[in-house]
Amino acid sequence: MERFSFCILFVLTMMLLGALFPVSTEAEDSPELGEDIKEVKMEVVRKPKFCLRKAKTGDLLLLKMEGKIFSTGEIFDTNMKEKQPYIFQYRGGQLDPEMENAMTDMCAGEIRKIRIPGGGDRQTFTAKTGVQVSANSTLEFVVELQDIQDSPDHVMVFNLLNNDKSGTLSVAQFMAIAAQGLEMFPLISTLEEMEVVIVEAFRLADKDGDGRLDLEEYLDSPLVSKENPEHEEAIQKRMNEYREKEAEKAEEAKKAKSKPKNEEL
After folding, report:
1. How far is it, in rounded angstroms, from Cα 170 to Cα 199?
2. What does the alpha-carbon distance between residue 119 and residue 110 come to, in Å, rounded to a whole number?
3. CB–CB of 137/70 below 8 Å?
4. How far apart, in whole angstroms, are the C-alpha atoms of residue 171 and residue 157?
5. The whole model's pTM is what?
6. Nearest-CA neighbor of 34 among 70, 58, 9?
7. Residues with Cβ < 8 Å from 141, sequence gap 6 or more?
8. Cα angle value 66/71/77 (rounded, 5°)
9. Distance (Å, rounded) from C-alpha 194 to C-alpha 178?
10. Could you tell me if 65 and 143 are in contact, meaning their C-beta atoms sit under 8 angstroms apart?
11. 53-65, pLDDT tens digit by residue?
């Protein structure tokens, strides 16, 4: 499952701490992994001369990544040409477990090519680029691990976000930071989608109904805690509903635009 809320928290943390120092390294060409496959295949494309740190559970991974449908070569997700990397928590439920397994012991500065077969628990989805990816498609990724960071201290993050010193957080405070680096969020396409996730997370955690989160509510919220998986499911459901409505609006607008003028009279 896509963990929208956790992804948002980690990216906002890195932005607040000013810890993003992307390296503009292009993925190198490497031999193909062969024909369509039945199990996950991984190939090391480039490894740094010195492996100063390997990814471990809980680390924040700063990634450049390109994903494509193997059979057609169609790219459905890439940030290779972007200044900022994607940010994921390793083993945090944000990436496909098969992808994470293929990244075991990956070093900062390393590039791997990973091919994942279709089927299993994967569902057909529409990527943020608009490309529909079938559940049965074999997917190929080039992954560059640019940097590895420690997982954030949540009380520190709360205090950094609480810039008005009120002791509580608002949706607006989250959105003000998020608006500065939308391209860093791998699961979010627009600020409107960002607001959907944050508003729903606040609704689920706001025990006293004042529209803001104090420290206790924040630490229990789906932005931080994994104790209530129903919260993440609710956020996923709300995002799906929003995207379906937006797709319907776009389709209606497309039909209206293509409608002959004589039918409008």
Report:
1. 9
2. 28
3. yes
4. 15
5. 0.60
6. 70
7. 65, 66, 67, 68, 99, 113, 114, 115, 116
8. 20
9. 8
10. yes
11. 999 988 888 899 9
Alpha helices in the chain, H assignment, sequence order? 4-17, 97-102, 154-161, 171-178, 191-205, 215-220, 229-258, 261-264
Say which amino acid occupies 131: V
Tokens of 68: 């494509």
- For residues 39 and 262, what is the distance between their CA atoms, to the nearest angstrom? 56
Q: Measured between alpha carbons, how far is 42 from 140 in angstroms, rounded to an integer?
A: 10
Region class of 167: left (phi > 0), else alpha (psi between -120 and 50), else beta: left
pLDDT tens, residue by residue, 119-138: 877 778 777 777 888 889 99
User: Which amino acid makes up residue 238?
Assistant: R
Name the residue with tokens 């689920």.
Answer: 204
Exposed/middle/buried for 128, CB within 10 Å: 0-12, 13-18, 19+?
middle
